[in-house]
Design a protein that fits this description.
Elements lengths: L9 E2 L5 E2 L21 E3 L4 H10 L5 E4 L5 E2 L7 E6 L7 H16 L3 E5 L15 E2 L2 H4 L19 H10 L4 E6 L1 H16 L5 E6 L15 H20 L4 E7 L6 H9 L5 E3 L13 H12 L1 E7 L25 H12 L6 E5 L2 H5 L5 H19 L2 E2 L1 E6 L2 E6 H4 L11 H10 L7
Parallel strand pairs: 6-7, 6-9, 9-10, 10-16, 11-13, 11-14, 12-13
Antiparallel strand pairs: 1-15, 2-5, 3-4, 4-17, 7-8, 16-17
Helix pairs in contact: 2-11, 4-5, 6-7, 7-13
This protein binds 6-O-phosphono-beta-D-fructofuranose.
Length: 438
């Protein structure tokens, strides 16, 4: 049987220390069992993949099951961990920080946990942010608040200098909470560590309000995002319906993926149009957006439009080349653009437009209960994986099970809404908007 497993997680070496966790090795004793290295989960669950593997005598691509191992690589009680949070805010970051600190302290007796302030900047001593010592006492209440207890920043830093800092401070495990750029950054740190033959495990915990990390089911905080957006859409509907030909436009985050806009519209099914970056829509013309909006107003006398911030960038003149510190192209403001275009278009037709932009309010909210559960479990699994000496991996759920996946695999491309998927079809069924607005 051939077929190289692309999901194999790299390891720093053989884990030689006995785990301090008092878990089971057998089934049937009502105690959770250690995860064995050959406990794997098939990635592609389709019958087509199953048949293909059978036909080619191949083992299917499998992901490593997350969880505590019987032997650990780092000597419990003698190790040091560090945590860094990078990029934009997202609900649940503090829950993850808390969970990692608690797991290190209470499960593995690791007393030294360094908080790296303001993202990767905190790993450059010359910038002068210093460190924050993290203890259970320090973090016990932080899950109640949105934002990040450690502060964040965008952009990478000199990888070599960051590794110097980790080595100088005897860090054994680095937990990086961040999105695509952060994960690529921590992978580069992991590679530099390997070049120097150092034994430092680097772990990514995917964080992106846009839910655009590939392969994984969902990034933490995403559910809270559309949960918080939901009552805003309800109220936007009240505003729209409260005026003759009332139009509410709500702009939600989503740089290149429209998951928040689409999910929020499904959660609060009062939305009539969802415009997302994945769609190529026209404003003018017989079947353009302004025409279908007019048709909706004629029929119903109000309309609610949800627009993701990255939608309709093709409608702006000239190519936008301005980038943020993470290297992402800064988008033009589609919300205000739409508001102006609608106002200009309906000049002889009385409309009332309300424009609502709750973007940062949503992103900085504390995690809801469901995300809080997810964050704690992600944190615990991240710690178990790092303690086992695994490196350059992320922890997440795939097919609803907690797994470890190589960072290189989840950062190959960004996840986007498939316009042919059942998910997007559900959005269209809910809004009643045409399949194509062109
Ligand atoms: O982190 C993702 C995100 O929230 C995007 O949705 C948004 O485009 C971007 O960050 C804006 O972040 P900032 O204004 O902090 O650079």
């Amino acid at each position: 049987m051939s077929n190289k497993n692309k999901f194999k997680i790299e390891s720093l070496g053989e884990p030689k220390f006995k785990s301090p966790l008092q878990l089971s090795t057998v089934r049937g004793d009502n105690i959770f069992s250690f995860i064995k290295e050959d406990d794997k989960l098939v990635y592609d669950l389709s019958l087509e993949n199953y048949n293909q593997c059978l036909k080619n005598s191949e083992v299917p691509q499998c992901l490593e099951k997350a969880g505590p191992r019987q032997n650990v690589f780092f000597e419990p009680s003698k190790s040091t961990a560090a945590i860094v949070t990078c990029g934009g805010l997202c609900p649940g970051i503090n829950n993850v920080i808390r969970g990692v600190v608690m797991a290190l302290h209470y499960f593995y007796d690791i007393k030294r946990v360094i908080g790296i302030p303001y993202g990767y900047e905190g790993l450059i001593p010359d910038i002068g942010h210093g460190f924050v010592e993290l203890s259970p006492e320090k973090v016990k209440d932080i899950h109640q608040f949105g934002g990040t207890f450690l502060g964040s920043s965008r952009g990478g830093q000199d990888v070599s200098k960051m590794v110097d800092t980790l080595v100088a401070n005897k860090v054994d495990m680095l937990f990086a909470i961040g999105g695509d750029g952060t994960l690529k950054g921590v992978n580069a740190i992991g590679e530099e560590i390997q070049k120097r033959n150092e034994n430092i495990s680097v772990v990514g915990i995917p964080k992106t309000i846009d839910n655009d990390i590939d392969l994984i089911d969902e990034s933490f905080g995403f559910e809270t995002a559309f949960d918080v957006a939901s009552p805003i859409l309800r109220d936007a509907h009240n505003e729209a319906a409260g005026a003759f030909n009332g139009i509410s436009i709500v702009k939600l985050m989503g740089r290149d993926s429209g998951f928040i806009a689409a999910s929020a519209a499904l959660a609060m099914p009062v939305v009539n149009f969802v415009l997302i970056p994945e769609m190529d829509f026209k404003l003018e013309g017989e079947n353009g957006f302004l025409a279908v909006l007019k048709e909706r107003l004629d029929r119903k006398k109000h309309a609610v439009i949800v627009v993701a911030e990255g939608a309709g960038q093709h409608l702006f003149e000239g190519e936008n080349t301005v980038k943020d510190a993470s290297g992402n192209v800064k988008h033009e403001d589609i919300g205000l653009f739409l508001k102006d275009k609608i106002a200009e278009h309906f000049v002889d037709f009385p409309v009332t437009i309300k424009y609502i932009d709750p973007s940062y309010i949503i992103r900085s909210a504390p995690a809801n209960s469901s995300d809080s559960v997810y964050c704690s479990r992600l944190a615990y699994h991240a710690v178990h994986g790092a303690m086992a000496g695994k490196t350059k991996f992320v922890v997440s759920t795939v097919n609803n099970r907690f797994v470890y996946a190589p960072i290189v695999e989840v950062t190959k491309k960004r996840k986007k809404i498939d316009l042919e998927s059942e998910f997007w079809f559900s959005v269209l069924q809910s809004t009643g908007q045409p399949f194509s607005i062109k």
